[in-house]
Amino acid sequence: MAAQQEIRLRLADDGDIDRLIDIHYDCFKQAPFTRYVWRNVANSEMDYKSVMRHYNFRQYFRSESHIIMVAERTTGAGRLVVGYCIWEWATNPDINGGSGIALVQQIRDQQREKEVGFGSITPSWWSVEEIAVDRQFQGLNIARILLGWGLKIADDRNWLVAVMSSPASTGLYEKTGFHYHGGNQPAARREIKVRGESEGCNIFIMKRVPQAGPLVVYYLSTA
Q: N-acetyltransferase domain: from which residue to which, for each copy (predicted)?
């Protein structure tokens, strides 16, 4: 538990972008979307990171429907962002006009509080967009800590959670209560296509219904 006690969760800010992109690139440089960008947009690692900075991560920060949670760990040089999780939600259009603006503002205004308040806006589901952990800090349950933060919020508010998982990550989601969409792995399998082009690999659509009782993941307060 010593390593886990050194981990602090908070919402990302603009100053984290370069670090998030470094982690993203190292973890996903062989992923289908990354390969697509390399083939069609970027000519170098610097170009790729520039594309991600301006067309992905900055869009997440401006988005009314995305939240980026980061995990920091104490090192000899101070605190270092060692992982992140990007969450997206959808609101019921019949509730408060379906606007996510107030929800985002409440999360950001109260990020230092132990319990995040959401007022009367009720998303119908969370979606795990992306989880990544610096390779030097993998094996410390950081991905489960990040996932646990969002799952606790979902359980407390009776939200469904969905994820499109790579084959390598399905174990993490299985251990935290996710099930394959359609009831089994073959039914949940989808072939990845980027801009209509097949990438020759699969993802698995998984869902998790709200669960009562303690969450079987490490959960640290954002306070």
A: 7-210
pLDDT 10s digits, 67-116: 888 999 887 778 899 999 988 876 543 333 333 334 444 444 444 333 33
* Entry pTM: 0.71
The gap from C-alpha 141 to its chain's centroid, in whole angstroms, comes to: 15
Distance of CA 208 to the CA centre of its chain: 15
Q: Quote helix, strand, coil % in the chain, to nearest 5.
A: 40, 30, 30
3 state DSSP class of 167 = helix
Token pair 């390399």 in the structure block, residue = 38
Give whole-number Cα distances, 50 to 56, 59, 86, in Å. Answer: 10, 13, 19
Ranges of each domain in the chain: 2-208
3-state secondary structure of 176: coil
| Residue 57 DSSP code | I
Considering the domain 2-208 in this protein, what is its CATH number? 3.40.630.30
Pair 150, 69: CB distance under 8 Å: yes
Q: Is 206 exposed, middle or buried (0-12, 13-18, 19+ CB in 10 A)?
A: buried
Cα(42)–Cα(47) distance, rounded to whole angstroms?
5
